[in-house]
Amino acid sequence: MTLTIAPVSPGDWRRWRAVRTRALDEDPAAFACSAHAWIEGGDTEERWRARIAARGRLFLATDEHGRDVGMIGLTADEEPELISMWVAPEARRAGAGRQLVETVLQVAGSRPVRLRVMADNRDAIAFYAGCGFVLTGDRPDAEDTLTMRRVATPAATGWPASAARPLRPGGPPPGRSADQ
């Protein structure tokens, strides 16, 4: 399956709304009750446009036939939160989810990223763990979600961090040089 992942523009609010509504209809247990309340209580064009106005934060995955088959978002917080992740059944197990996650991780850059996942959604927890996220606790919150966090890895330099370097025989651990 060939996918195109693109940011959602304000003119795409109907497409985003359609995918989000499909996600909530087809996989309601995958979303916290606050996601359902957002749709039910505030399903207006103005609210969707405001959410989409932060360009480069919401993304749609489109297959080779032009069908929207996935979505993901990233909040603009100092420690961004991955939100609204969903892949249509016909696009699952084809790498769509990983592509969506990689897209928002690129947007986040070197900042850590957090997410909330339903506590009983073991498949999603395993998927996110495979993407480098770790659980930050074992107690669900009021919406029965667990928090996971991924710390961005520094760019590879070829040299391990000083703490990871082997100790010098008979000497102290390596220190920082003047140029570090």
UniProtKB/TrEMBL annotation:
Region (Disordered) residue spans: 151-180
GO molecular function terms listed in the Swiss-Prot or TrEMBL record: acyltransferase activity, transferring groups other than amino-acyl groups
Bias kind Pro residues: ranges: 169-180
Keywords noted in UniProt: Acyltransferase, Transferase
Family annotation (SUPFAM superfamilies): Acyl-CoA N-acyltransferases (Nat)
Protein's UniProt keywords contain Lipoprotein: no
Domain of life: Bacteria
Residues in N-acetyltransferase domain copies: 3-153
PROSITE patterns (UniProt xref): GNAT
Gene3D superfamilies referenced in this protein's UniProt entry, alphabetically: 3.40.630.30
Pfam families xref list: Acetyltransf_1 (PF00583)
InterPro entries tied to this protein: Acyl_CoA_acyltransferase, Bact_Acetyltransf, GNAT_dom
Name used for this protein in its record: N-acetyltransferase
Organism: Aeromicrobium flavum
